[in-house]
């Protein structure tokens, strides 16, 4: 790719870059904007985080800039790392600018903590992860906008290639998180990982163990939010990182055959479902539900001569596995997790419903159990139809349409989605002079069942009448007031 000079000049034409250049010139310091910000200019992607590298102390340059910006700037220095950050607010613009002195680094084998020495710009570029992330633009007046690209990063951007500037074994061994980053960038940008670089990931994959779970999940989240997330998981599998960071997903792989009968490969099926959901929704947690919807299958797999392969209750087993997976992977243990669990637990319901006659009562129950997440559940279930048999797909999708229509009708008529029972436990206790006890729960659940079965409407009077009848059948009489 020929660097588009006008594009560079247009991007740098911002007061903040002019000011950084001026401050650096006054200190007689070469100074460059470097890394992801430069890459994203050429990819036409928005980017807010600006990385500045200078020869000498990055902290001194940041201090000088902060002094010029005055009240609008907030400076933080990290002396241990020799870095500084300037946060800068102007009107509705919020920028974070990181400063670092050009460094020559080497890493000790058992940690990510580097041993740092001052270096040249080239030294600093050498120690960056990928050629496309090592591009630098000069901000000094006499070299304003000059692109420094020692490793053919522009050509790699053009061809869509992820490649390390140095021997990939060195780059990945210096910081094994970069193996995940390579796969994440390939997925996000739809780039290819250059074969030598990919082979090095495979050779170094076990080094991922020194990387914190938080950093790994950060990259996995970026893969999940990409347009075609399956690409990342297929690469993770091919380079053998997947079993190390996500063994449960890896366990979905493979096909077993008994008496000539095989089951589908649940890994590739899961990825197809994930991509289907990603086409229909940006909701990251719905995507996690897709990724985990069949996670219980390996533990529930059985072969039966009559039925063939079965995965009974894999949805409930999967639902139970989720807290353990979320805890280990440092995913949030909050309502997001509960939502994923709920969808995984319920994901068979619309399918079963669509296979049978769609009765009002089954639809009411589904609506009651799914509540406000019913639309997401329907997206998941439609995405779960990955059969190659066109007729089968059509039959399922038509049935789902019927389920959707019924859901709308019943919701309009009965407002089941956020249903509260028209009778409360207190009323039962008061009416029959009961303490909090089992019969109270039994009467309540009989009322709920009657409403969901459509035997009585979701209203107080009919529910009270039903309560009196149910209690009478249990031998309970109302107490006189
Ligand atoms: N970098 C690196 N090795 C890492 C992380 C970062 O060499 N493990 C370098 C790369 O030059 C990268 C820059 O630091 O471009 C900034 O890193 P970061 O902000 O994490 O990533 P970006 O490349 O900006 O991409 P994104 O914002 O999408 O994370």
From TrEMBL:
- Positions the record marks as coiled coil are none
Cross-referenced Pfam families:
HD, PolyA_pol, PolyA_pol_RNAbd, tRNA_NucTran2_2
**UniProt entry keywords in alphabetical sequence:** ATP-binding, Magnesium, Metal-binding, Nucleotide-binding, Nucleotidyltransferase, RNA repair, RNA-binding, Transferase, tRNA processing
Q: Where is the HD/PDEase domain?
A: 262-369
Q: Which InterPro entries match?
A: CCA-adding_enz_C, HD/PDEase_dom, HD_domain, HDIG_dom, NT_sf, PolA_pol_head_dom, PolyA_RNA-bd, tRNA_CCA-adding_enzyme
Say if the entry is tagged with keyword RNA-binding: yes
The record's Gene Ontology biological-process terms are:
RNA repair; tRNA processing
Output one GO MF annotation: ATP binding
Cofactor(s) the protein needs: Mg(2+)
SMART domains attached here? HDc (SM00471)
Q: Which NCBIfam families match?
A: HDIG
Q: Which family does it belong to?
A: Belongs to the tRNA nucleotidyltransferase/poly(A) polymerase family.
Please give the name of this protein.
tRNA nucleotidyltransferase
